[in-house]
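re: ur question from yesterday

yeah so i grabbed the chain u mentioned. its 89 aa long if i counted rite. heres the sequnce exactly as i have it in my notes:
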Amino acid sequence: MQKTYKNFVFLGLLPFVLMYLFFAWLYLYDPLQLFHKPFLRDETFLHDLRSQNRGIIENYDFNSVILGTSMLENTLPKDANEILQNLVL
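ran it thru and got these structure tokens back, copy pasting raw so excuse formatting
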């Protein structure tokens, strides 16, 4: 009976330990850069920044934002930086 109780406790706690390890790895890797800049990999950005905006706003320095309609979607931040001489997001 003692062995079945130990197995029950072990198998009952195993999913929580695995979930904790998964979330710890996800926090360290942070693919959307929501919590911090990446420290174990290169900085990468998704093509659609909508899901990444919060992390970029909190973790990167900038002093300008380009807002507008879909016509401004193809505006490159590099060109805006040269024209405005600012750090554009």
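noticed a couple things. The chain has a mean pLDDT of 86. also DSSP finds three helices and no strands in the chain.
anyway ttyl
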